Amino acid sequence: MTVDDLPAAHQLSQAALWPHRLEDWKFIHELGEGIVAENKSGIVGTIMCWLHGARYASIGMNIVAPDHRHLGIASELMTRILREVGSRTTLLHTNSNAIAMYEQFGFAPFGTIHRHQGTVFRTPFVALAEGERIRPVSPRDEGALAELAARSTGMPRSTVIKQLMTVAQAVAIDHYGELIAFAALRKFGLGYVIGPVVAPDIDRAKALIAHWAGVRAGNFVRIDVPGSSGLGPWLTEMGLVQVDETVTVMVRGEPPRPEASVTRYALLSQSLG
To answer: Out of 54, 181, 203, 232, which could bridge 173 as a Cys pair, Cβ 3.0 to 4.6 Å?
Structure first.
């Protein structure tokens, strides 16, 4: 997949009713590698992978044109992209229709993701502890953000965070000067997406999410949260309701081991984790 393929890939995702803009494709393409399936009519399938250090990878954007499905294209794309990731532990997100196919490649269910979205007009107030404040991040915080993100996922995140900071705004919670949590906001699809959100506990995660929801009050906002986050009812009360079916996280290999002291409460994206 080259940069020249992205407009056609974008059209393919639109045909599949995916919300990605061309700019969203460019963002993820700059971080990863991709393969396209094409015939005389043009591109009819895509898949991408992202390498997270020497031990981990993720796969996503596996799309096949509606009139070319059930022809083995998705499986062939998967076979080829797995050669790129090699022996790395590999993660992906999928709906229930594709679970059986991915199981044939050695993937097993590992968790769930819930997509919440909507328009927030009124945000709850979430108090912080004494000595804490929400502040914008600066370039000097990039190392601290990457460290928190790595601890919360169990995978290296410095490259992803560096690229994210070129397209997103981010705020952090610091505790007497120590950065302990952060959340990013960027344009995506029909509006904005909040994520990642990394914090030591759910109350600080709520404070960060409420901050960005308030900043974008009246706009369409999306957030993808792990099924174990405990945020679902609170997000729904705020106007960010769960849509579509639950997304299954699948893994091939030894799953990454996040630290218990910090949690990823929202994903950067379903492709990048």
So the answer is: 181
Classify residue 107: in a domain, yes or no: no
Give the CATH number of the domain where residue 26 resides: 3.40.630.30
In the chain (273 residues long), the average pLDDT of successive 10-residue segments reads: 96 93 96 95 95 96 91 95 96 93 96 95 89 95 97 96 96 96 96 98 98 95 96 95 91 96 96 87
In a domain, 250, yes or no: no
**Domain extent for 65:** 3-87
Q: Looking at the structure, tell me whether residues 39 and 123 fall in a common domain.
A: no
CA 271 remoteness from chain centre: 5
Q: pTM score, two decimals?
A: 0.94
